[in-house]
User: Fold these one by one.
Assistant:
Number 1:
Amino acid sequence: MAPGPSRRLAILTVFILLCCTSRVSAQQAAPQPAETLVPGYSRFRAEHLQPAEAGRLLIAEMNCQSCHGTFPGLTVAPRQAPILTAATGRLNPEHVRRFLTNPHQQKPGTAMPQIPAAAGSPENLDALTAFVTAGSTWRPQAVSSDAIRRGEEQYHRIGCAACHGDLRSDEAIIAIRRGLAPPNPEEEDAPKDATAPALQRPDFLMPLGPLHEKYHLGGLIAFLREPHTIRPSGRMPSLGLSPEDARDIASFLLKDVRVEGSIQYEYFEGGWDKLPDFTKLKPVSTGTTTDFSAGPASRGDDYALRFSGYLQIATAGEYRIHSSSDDGSRVLVNEQEVVNNDGIHPPVGRSGVITLKTGSHTVVVEFFEKGGGEELTVEIEGPGLPRQPLSGSVTLTRDPPKPQEKTAAPPSPELIAKGRLLFTQLGCASCHQHGDGDQRLQPALASPAPAFADARPDSGCLAVSSDKAPRFTLSNRQRSDLQAAITEARQAPSQATTPAAETRSVMLSLNCFACHSRGGIGGPSEPLNHVFTGTIPEMGDEGRVPPPLDGAGDKLSEDWLRRLLIEGGKDRPYMQTRMPAFGAQHADVLVPRLASDRQAEVPVPEFAEADHRIKADARLLVGDKALSCIKCHRFDNLAATGLQSLDMTTMTKRLRRDWFHRYLIDPQKYRPGTRMPAAWPGGNSIIPHVLNGNSAQQIEAIWRYLQDGNRAKVPSGLERQSIVLLPEQRPLIYRNFIEGLSPRGIAVGFPEKVHFAWDAEHMTPRLIWHGAFIDAAKHWVDRGPGFQSPLGDHVMTLPQGPPVAALASLDETWPAKNARELGYQFRGYRLSPSGLPTFRIDWQDRQLFDTIEPLANSPDFGLKRTLELKSASPLRGLWLRIAAGKITDSGGSFVSDGVQYTITGGLPILRQSANRQELLVQLPEGANAAKVVVEIRW
């Protein structure tokens, strides 16, 4: 007999309930990882690691040494457990209690062992929780939807996903992969079919656990900004996050947090150009919310919001409040305006400071939106409070907040004292630091763990089951590998190793292989290839995937390697993934071992030309008239004309000279598939007219040129909107701010492509150069600020004035003050019929005339400087100074820092003064006039 409609409905209902129940049960009973998760082990054990090597990796990453003593043959320091000294301020007591009960369930794959069954009673767990979180006022804090959205993008872009996995939906992952590879029909079908399995996720990712149950927003922000303060071993590296980035990523990771509304809001509709007087308005709606944001608005434009609540301050002091909004906003605390960010504008941030006492304070946030984008973010920072959303410190009532959840037992003093004792007796203090200096707790185990040499494979931590030992999640393979490492150490405790093997060991521990390859292993795994992105698609994988580290010690200087490992870096602006900071301890280990990558040194070629001419040739080579390096490489703050690759001005800081030579000869040998062209194919130059086409000299010239860093002359082809002044028929005079001179500079250019700049403050020529004269764009386009450097090459600096002085003897030092301070007066200049300027200086009853004109010379013109002195009284003890620095007498002429001086009309004297040499010319005693001619070549 067929069941009736009601019976069929009942059967269907039971069937649905059973299906739902079985699904929930399946989720709750999801299989846990069969082993402790160590990324380098889980990813590479099967194909690349031998048992003993794998065991050593486990010993380092499971911190076995904290209980069993030093283990021979480990290159990297063990992974220290998190510091618990200040856990009270960041950890949820309920989470700590659950985690202690079953760490492997809370965070599958964790290296934290479960407390031995013999000691894991509920009373002991309550005591440990009370001690670790004593005094906790932990409560969840709301996160904003805007911050979650930004944080999700940042998390997947800057490198978090490389270690912790892609946390986006399967549909989003597939859509991203489609942009990197041809579509996979199986993947395309997966999101559409509810019964189809999800995408295969890598099983070597570091677990995050239920972060929203563990951290509140402020605590996670602080950890993300300075992870080494809690996890000093550097396995969680620092990404150098700004306060804003840390806030957004923390918000994304805590997106599952659920809190009750703690802020009152009023919503108004209308059109305003500035914040209205809310006391004269009637709200359209009211309610409570969890954050200061545009969320409560029911339309996109022409509305306003007024938020109110009570700001809870735990520590008295000075607090800074930040408001970023589009359009206007205002923040008031205790009816005092702290931040005024009013008006119609795009997202703009403003801040204000207020001193607050401990306790509750009224807070009001006003906001209006006219049109276009809409955004509101309000943050606070102060004593013991890193920059974080203001909403986390605001409540609906004046009463201070209470913890949302209570621990299993009241944290009485007796319970805390019991937990403190258990912390030392159960071995917690062996792994976790609690307290600093003399206050740091030390382990007090009743039965200390045996040394590695005495460890037995069937007991203790390695036993499949033990009521007295900590219980790790170890697979049979992991137990076998640990035994292999211990056995090998017993048989050969001082086993020899190689720098390459030690480097690999460090990279396995630090999970460097998640991003970089070296020695045939590592680099982005296929399932995570899509999380590595770049800003220039045309660069392909080279623009998005971190470079391989084969030969890294040969390529990068030791100083740069240390800086990268200690501070992190962002040297490839087109690559979204950041190089994180691992700390000095790992730099001390890794950098010396990477030095073994170095190959034979490349001989330094010899040059017949002066250094300034070599650099000028190099400037020509990298510019748009030769190799056009500027098409792909930035030059300091100047963008490349095409792809925005590495900055040329930092190359000699980053790279080793020998590698630079070898790489430029054959880039494909060092990075197959690179877009870097071979400008010297087969070792032969494609620019034969520079340095006689000598490849070694050309490359060395570029190296020397780039050693000047951001002081190097800008290559041709990078100037934007240039206004190049060209002296053609007669001299050209340019008066403006010139780099290397006082603000009173006067540049004179000649058609012969030789030029100088005269300083009216020091009353002497300060710069000389060849080639192009000057680019006036900086000062002639909107009167741009700053000093303009000469446009040409061979720029040489001459000593600052005064050019003439009275000396009682040759032992007297040259006046250190500038000429104006010493009473010299600049009387301007007069022009000859051909436009040649003569500068005049008055000093007491004397006049000095300084004329500089082109001097025929090869391969470039020089300058002839004529100095004429006229005096109303006889000359006594007067000297001209021509040069200062390191000077050599070459027989008839003098050379100072690459500049040659030939003097007629006076007696040159070379003297030592104030740790340098000076070239002086004595003027004739008793005469009323003198004339000295100096020929300058360089």
Number 2:
Amino acid sequence: MASLKPFFPRNPYLLLRLAYAATVVLFLWICTQFYIPGKGFTYLIRFGTQRNVPAVIPALGPGAINHYEEEDSYGYDAQYYAQIAMRPWLGNPALKRAVDSLPYRARRILFAWTAYGLALGDPSRALQIYAVQNIACWLALATLMLRWFPPVNWGNFARWFGLLFSSGLCLSVRGSLVDGPSLLLIAAGVALVEAGRPWWSAVVLGVSGLGRETNILAAGAPAWPKARTFRAWVEFVVRALIVLLPLAAWLWVLRGWLGNDGMHAGNNFAWPFRAYATKWSNTVHQLRSEGIGSVAQWSVLMLIALTAQWLFFVLRPRWNEPWWRVGMAYAVLMAALGDAVWEGYPGAASRVLLPMALAFNVLVPRGARWWALLLLGNLTVIFSSDFLKPPGREDYHISGPRDLYMIAKTGHTVEAVFNDKEWFLPERSRFDYWRWSRGSATLALHNPQDFAVMADISFDLKSNDERHVTVNAGDRVLWSGDTIRTLRGVVVRDVRLEPGDTVWRLTTDQEAEFPPNGDLRKVAFSLRNLEIRVTRRAEITGAPVGKP
């Protein structure tokens, strides 16, 4: 056994610390994938081309600040907060037209102000800063949580990692939402309570209420006065007012400035557990109808995780613990959440209840018999990577001898050209890249050389249903078969690519349909992992051919 000692570090904490460091490096690497040249990190904000409002502010109009827009999408909440951040003058008529409900969105003004302030009033910089605020707050939260999860054992690492890569926090990062920065402020407020700084805690929690209204639920972190004296009670009441007054004053200002229209919370709240039960019912029905592999399986894991957290706080009261008081407050909130928070995939519940998740990871006792509960409460880690998929930038890969597929003087290469009227924009995951078709579609294989080349072309086909797809080059059938939810690999060898375009037609026997995950696009099939491997120079004579 002595010969094995050199393979193990003398410092027993070295591997553990490397795991912490590797987690941060992994997150930063993921974040770099969201950068798009010319558009920065605006992919994270999720602007949509199909809007619920007629326009955007002039700074984002045609010919103005370049930014990423999701095709055939209504976008998401951050597109409204980001526009406020670019110029937070709420009386601006253009802003009123561009934001779906300005009185409602303006209640969460804090992180629009921080972006605008850090940008020194420059709208373009404010847009980029707003997009990456969640990334900065994730890093700050990862550092702050070392207070509760220091790198001394793997149990602490599991709790720390489980929160940082929970679906709620990943959703906040992916959508530049207010939940991640809000969690940082709440965690800072509780840390100040534990450090014996209740006044500073009240200030931090009061400011956090301007980021999201439910943040003031963390006001329960400070305990009731231990000393039953008049002064102690006065101090307690004053600290409570410090938490409540910033939000109350801002709401009063907004009511006078913008009026009362749009100030209500809509379907955000409901009778206790009514919307929660509806979510369970809808999820089970979807799982039965669509089976394993649908997004319903992830909704089940999310519901199990939140239920485990809720039961922990209800069944194991610890009134003297600041984190228990915070977690219990959000457990009550969970019961009252409405359909608007639970509906859809993935829904907003997991990010709205992030403080409960952090309190859960802090308070679950150490020890082997608690591991099952800890794992149940962090099940969303299993699918959180689904929300951190980078934007698609590639349609295909090209390989082979460089002098055959590339013209050295111009840099032009053999390429696949997609018609955007027949295909949606490229997408990708960690390992795959693809385009969804809008129905039957064409694909042009362009050869810039003045001579023909031979190539092997491989790709995968996948659809949300069972359908038949045929690949034709003119009248010649290159491949024909059925596609299903699992990948169907296709290889067409010895394809002759004449100078110019060789056009393929991919025909399907069914119309495009809405996918089961709530996507607003009608899609037919996806062409995935297209690779063009140029093999040799073609003979002078011959016609474009290809054999499967």
